[in-house]
Amino acid sequence: MSRSSPGVARVAAILNFIADHPGQAFALTDLVRALKLSRATCHALLTGLVDVGYLYRTTDKTYVLGPALASIGRTAAAHFSPLQVAQPEMRSLADEFDVVCGAYFLEGDVIHLRERAASLSHIGYPVPLGTRMPLRWIQAITFFARSARDADAWLGRADPPLGDEQLGLFRAGIAFVRTHGYLALLRRPGSEEGEAGVRVGTEDPPVLPLVEVDAARVHPLVALMAPIYDSRDRVVMVLVMAGFHGAMTGASVAEAGGRLAEACARISGFLAGSGDAD
């Protein structure tokens, strides 16, 4: 990750501090003490931010967010989409692993494919952009991995209810995602290659979660899934890599899953405001 200049970091610290305390105004002394800046440096930065309209200096010599920054915020809120940040990562993953990488959003109990990047060998991938399908337990693992309350709420309304085997895999899958940041879906023994996949809208899709990785074992990998979170630790969307060519060893699955998890962590960091999106 590239380093920002100290000046940029100090400007960001001032703006973030004031934004984190809505309805309050701060004097120069307050900001010097809170941000541990020298008085001269802080005063120079505040003056510059007032000049460009990012801060406003009140009559009692305190500072609040300014009209130019408010306008930028409104524009960003109206036009920004997390997909703008995710698209370059999706393209990189699709090309690196020769797969299709899709961005799925949860809308109630329906998942919606809103963006997709495909490698050259998958240009004709059969799942159309905009596809909606019922959320099934195999996908719900990733969407609810960090929220036990949401997972339990969904289990309570799942139709049909999960059987004992499914419930055990559901819980184990959630634990795996929490530990590793991704979930691998394997073709269920006895199912045909063409019928497996996260796109199948049946009560029990012919895929199973991989809940224990054996580096040497060969797995019939169907897809990899990983969640992206916002600043409140809520899932914004899930990236799904599908269309792998043939079986893969556990070591290869872990490598691809780790790469996907790293990409999702970078996107999550950006959405959470850490700026870690390089």
What does this structure look like?
The protein has nine helices and twelve strands. The longest helix is centred in the last third of the chain and has 22 residues. The protein is 43% helix and 21% strand. It folds into two domains: 72 residues, Winged helix-like DNA-binding domain superfamily/Winged helix DNA-binding domain (Arc Repressor Mutant, subunit A, Orthogonal Bundle), CATH 1.10.10.10; 191 residues, GAF domain (Beta-Lactamase, 2-Layer Sandwich), CATH 3.30.450.40. The strands form three sheets. A seven-stranded antiparallel β-sheet has the order 6-5-4-11-10-7-8, with helices on both faces. Strands 1-3-2 form a three-stranded antiparallel β-sheet. A two-stranded antiparallel ribbon has the order 9-12.
If you consult CATH, what is the topology of the largest domain? Beta-Lactamase
Average pLDDT taken over every residue: 88
Give the name of the CATH architecture of the largest domain: 2-Layer Sandwich
Computed Rg: 23 Å
CATH superfamily of the largest domain: GAF domain
Largest sheet: 7 strands, antiparallel
Write the element-wise H/E pattern from the N-terminal end onward.
HEHHEEHHEEEHHHEEEEEEH
Bin the strand percentage: 15-25%
Question: Spatial order of the strands in the main sheet?
Answer: 6-5-4-11-10-7-8
Low-confidence runs:
194-202
CATH class category of the largest domain? Alpha Beta
Helix amount, in percent? 40-55%
| Number of domain modules | 2
| Number of separate strands | 12
